[in-house]
Amino acid sequence: MKYFPVALMALAAPLLIAALSWAGTAALTVAVCALCVVVAVGWPQLMGVTARKSLSMVILAAGVIAAVGAALVAKTENLFFWSSVALAFGVMTVFVIQVLRGTGRPHRLESTLGACTGVVITTTAAGWVAGLRYPAELAGTNGGDVLGLLHVRGLLHYEDWTVLNVTGPGGELSVVALAASALFAGSLVACLPLREAIVLPATVVVSTAAALTIAILWGELTLLFAGVLGVAAGVLLACFRRFLVQHGAPGSVLSGMAVGAAPVASMGALVYFTERLLFV
Questions:
Q1: Nearest Cα to 54, choosing from 90, 91, 97, 89?
Q2: Which end of the chain is more exposed for a tag (fewer CB within 10 A), N or C?
């Protein structure tokens, strides 16, 4: 039961993101902001930092600004602009708070590093919104032989009608839903109370297999793209599980929920930049 809050958030957050991604950008932005709230409240407790209230506000504000900015920008090249701005000013604000606390305060270094890590996690969560607004192009349209060979039509009839601009230009599965599904599948394995030598590689394998299976069943996305997202989700979950096992169960419910939400939030940046790299 001591790991229940971690498992709850690790499983519930991807499902929420996948479901709301079909409702449109506004709904997904709200979900990402809620994810930032969970991280902002629990992360300072997890890291044992001081000045928790002020640092939690900085972590939350940075994440909300990044997510709302990604939802409002009009140009594709600016989708991650506000994440960079929020990250820079968030880290600067953390240092300013530490200076204002005065000299001789205990755990100043740990507090600074922990808060900066929280800012990084919440600002990268905006990648979910940016990834939704940057739909993947159909494989083969750019004349790429490799992507064309890895393209599959799909065994099931794919969705060919646009719901609030969620789907891509050819009606393909939302990349956000694909990545969130891979995270959910990997989280199921990562929550198993088995040996690390078994769970860690199994997490990567299952998340990758889930992404590839969805791509094959739905079609209109490349196996290369789905495989990269699946591997990224599995590795991220494996790293967070290893971190959790080494440091033990979180001391409170809020810190446990923050641990469970952190890999989901961090996955946002991987989703967006994988899209930009493979589907330019």
A1: 97
A2: N
* pLDDT for the residue numbered 146: 37
**CB-count burial class (<10 Å; 0-12, 13-18, 19+) for 258:** buried
CA 35 centroid distance within chain:
9
**For residue 102, what are the contacts with CB-CB under 8 A and spacing of at least 6?**
none
Question: What is the total count of domains within the chain?
Answer: 1
pLDDT one-digit tens code per residue, 147-173: 444 445 555 544 444 443 344 444 456
Q: How far is CA 39 from the centre of its chain?
A: 12
Torsion of CA 206, 211, 213, 217, to 10 degrees: 160
Q: How far apart are CA 239 and CA 266, in angstroms?
A: 12
pLDDT of residue 160: 46
Whether the per-residue pLDDT at 2 is higher than 90: the answer is no
**Contact between residue 276 and residue 76 where contact means Cβ atoms under 8 Å apart:** no
Highest mean pLDDT among 12-16, 95-99, 162-166: 12-16
Residue written as token pair 């794919």:
158
Residue 19 in this model has a pLDDT that exceeds 70: yes
- Tokens encoding 68: 């709302």
Other CB atoms within 10 A of residue 35 CB: 25
C-alpha dist (Å) from residue 127 to 8, 26, 66, 183, 196: 22, 14, 9, 15, 29
pLDDT at 13 over 50: yes
Between residues 229 and 162, which one has the greater pLDDT?
A: 229
Q: Give the contacts of 188 (CB within 8 A, at least 6 positions apart).
A: 11, 206
How many residues in the chain? Answer: 280
Q: Pick the closest to residue 38 from 107, 124, 121, 126 (CA basis).
A: 121
**Nearest residue to 267 via CA among 184, 206, 144:** 184
